[in-house]
Amino acid sequence: MKRRIYLRMQSWEEALEAFFERVLPSRYNEIEILPVKEALGRVTAEPIFARLSSPHYHSAAMDGIALTAQVTFGAAEDRPKRLRVGEEAFFVDTGDPLPPRTDAVVMIEEVHQVDTQTVEIMRAASPWQHVRMVGEDLVASELILPQGHRLTPPDLGALLAGGILEVPVKKRPRVAVIPTGDEVVSPEEAFARGPQAGEIVDVNSTILGGLIEEAGGEFVPRPIVRDDPRELKDAILSASRKGYDVVVINAGSSAGSEDYTPAIVEELGEVLVHGVAVMPGKPTLLGVVNERPIIGIPGYPVSAVISFDLFVKPLLAAMLGRSAPKRESITVVPTRRLPSKLGAEEFVHVRVGQVGERVMAIPLPRGAGVISSLTRADAIIRIPRLLEGIEEGGEAAAELLVDKGEIANTVVIIGSHDLALDLLASWVKREVPFLRLSSNHVGSLEGIIALKKGYAHMAGSHLLDPSTGEYNLSYIQRYLSGVPVRVIHLAYRQQGFILPLGNPQGIKGLLDLVRDEVRFINRQRGSGTRVLLDHLLDQEGINPTQISGYEGEELTHLGVAVAIESGRADVGLGIYGAAKALGLHFVPLAQEQYDLIVPHEHFDDPRVQKVLAVLRSEGFRAQIEGLGGYNTSMMGKEISV
Known about the structure:
Molybdenum Cofactor Biosythetic Enzyme, Chain A; alpha/beta; Molybdopterin biosynthesis moeA protein, domain 3
């Protein structure tokens, strides 16, 4: 099959409007009757009216005595009123029916019991005080809930109080998800025999299924379809005829030679939209087959989620008679420039945390296949399609993916990557559940510069000064002039060569890096590991240009380790803990010092102090020692600046 070019690119708003005009989701009227106790989260299919008043009898709203208000008139502290128990006054508990011919309750705290037959009050009661009258909450025939209302736990209580035991709700739209691709395998199959090179584990079906359920639909997984036009055609026809309300095809809607979905949908029905001006998510397809909405969603996870958010979620909401919920928007300050191509609205996932008066946004990797950007994201910045990007330090609107309260309870660390920080974040969440630690890896020097700009509460750094042999202090003096800081020691770490298991090339020292057959993987400029490497190379008189792969960069120690494990490189410089984590060989070269740098203005912040308290705990120290390659004897100690 020939490659296809995209049809006229539309904005997602135009595409959605055209789609809705054709599929008319408001006509969806499938209804079912459910017991109220089983209807949580469902959407009412019609207005619900009370059958009973609530309360359906006059009841005491307080513990005390019920009486007729008239008999209390004239009571005062200097003229107490005595009443006969069982004739004029009746003891009641909250919720009890009022005895006949009574219309008020006096709180027990205001009642003095003279004897078993007599009580005394010192204040007159007004009619109906402390009484819940019939229909105070609901009156029989009164509207309890409108049509199109999503049922909450209090709603269920209100329905039961109004005498409703069963409720008509919209049936959840059934959404069939068809994964496609010769390379796609189910998780069960892949992990039963071990994933093979060239295979892609089908994670998207699970992601989309969860999103469908969250949006009020019923997820119906379908078998994986191979890159065969006849097989895909049969799968689409079958799904469109089996009573599914929406058919989602995952992958196969792009412009590649084996992307058959557009042509098949066009043959079987209508292609309304093919190609939307968004990044990621451009290959989205919207169509109709047998009057069933067909949505072709791109195969990369980030693209799939964005496409779902823009098209499937509002479709399901409209079918349920609701509008798609909007996320809360806040103003954030990007810590790096966010370049973007003209012509497409770009969605950038970011981590956020409040530092001083500003909410900082740290961009996550922007690849459409980087699923970790979805799991780590706190918010999304949308870059309009007529902008070439958003500048660092400017302001931008961001849609929150987490509760706003979490943002104010986040401690932001920017700087060098260390496995100890990953564990520290986990420990902080365990020990102080309301607090989050957001660790963002940009390199030691960039972390220090971020403190200068006010972007973070602390920075992680292990920058060696070759002239003095000291770590971090000279860089603090150079780059943080005028910013008073405190320095807290994290750990001493072993840095060395990370190598394949068994060290097949026999790499033992720096001179081995210049061998023609050795491929090196480096860390980014400004990282402490890069500074250490350049210092060691200079000591040996080695020119970096002699090293194959010196210009290749990874952002983390684990990234270096993965590059070695996968065969992309033969050797890289990193910490022992990363080599141990992936079962790789390690040749130690140096012990270095890793510190946390905290500006004075943040040091006494209770959130920062809680993080430091966890850092200094014996349990945390013991776990870091267990990673291997760490010396924690000075962990948590302050270093004089």
